[in-house]
Amino acid sequence: MTRIILPVDFSDSTDKLLEGAVDFAKKTNGKLHLIHVTPSDIGFAIGDMGFQYFPEVEQNEIKEELLQLNTLQQRVIAQGVDCEHYLKQGIAKDIILEYARDKNADYIVMGSHGRSGIYDVFVGSLTKELTKTSPIPVLVVPCHGD
């Protein structure tokens, strides 16, 4: 079974990315491993008194992101593809590569934005970094247009 890591950020391109990854998983008898990396500073805000930490904001955001991951996982399973998910706080590139190594992944599937001709904007800085540094093949799915 092909092990496919699919980082998701719940942006407008997530549906297109998920569609491409599910199609790839079906063609390769693959299992999708959805991963969402949330920033470590999600509960912090700056105000008159400087930086303040609001744990309830962080907890609520993580609960919402887990619900979104569960929903995506159910969509994948409903299409006949085995799927699990993982959420962690930290630096996205490092967490994704660590998770891919832990799962002995065959591929990482990332999306492109297609907003401009400039490479960093077109592909996305995280996708660019992973394609440059990952020892695991990175498949880039165009997530713009039809």
How would you portray this structure in words?
43% of the residues lie in helices and 28% in strands. It starts with a strand and ends with a strand. By secondary structure, the chain is an alpha/beta fold. It has a five-stranded parallel beta sheet with strand order 5-2-1-6-7, with helices on both faces. It has a two-stranded antiparallel sheet with strand order 3-4. About 6% of the residues have low confidence. Helix 1 links the parallel strand 1 and strand 2. The protein is built from five helices and seven strands.
Percent strand: 25-35%
**Nearest-angstrom radius of gyration?**
16 Å
**Alpha-carbon distance between the two ends:** 30 Å
Q: Mean of residue pLDDT?
A: 86
Largest sheet, strands/sense/barrel? 5 strands, parallel
What is the number of E strands?
7
Question: What string, H for helix and E for strand, traces the elements in order?
Answer: EHEEEHEHEHHE
Number of helices: 5
Residues in helix, % = 40-55%
How would you describe the shape? globular
Structural class: alpha/beta
| Largest sheet: spatial strand order | 5-2-1-6-7
Task: Indicate the low-confidence ranges by residue numbers.
Answer: 115-123
Descriptors for this entry?
single chain, alpha/beta, five-stranded parallel beta sheet, 28% strand
Short description:
With 146 residues, the protein is of the alpha/beta class. The chain contains five helices and seven strands; from the N terminus they run βαβββαβαβααβ. The chain starts with a strand and ends with a strand.
